[in-house]
Amino acid sequence: xxxxxxxxxxxxxxxxxxxxxxxxxxxxxxxxxxTLAGRDIGKTxxxxxxxxxxxxxxxxxxxNEESIRAAADRTRAAGGLDHLISVATERGSGPVxxxxxxxxxxxxxxxxxxxxxxxxxxxx
Length: 124
Description:
This protein is of the alpha/beta class.
């Protein structure tokens, strides 16, 4: 039996990006209930409204544990989470000789640590 996304609750982190918009459109067509999360709530809200008024925007900074806990609390209050997709990034690029430790750690937090903390905290 094929898997259905109908009425599945999906949180997309990095909600202001073009890839998040494309994912949101596809997920909505499959019947999913989508929440977009991002650091810049204005940009995230605009992205949510651009694809439809059924998409809920949420402020979330993956480098901030308080922000992660608050987003997880809102997610649980809204009925929980079936799927988490993170397309969030923090730029830590350039020639290896010029990379700074802080930029590398911030990139790792956004790509790995933050999403793991969010998933584990959202479980309840």
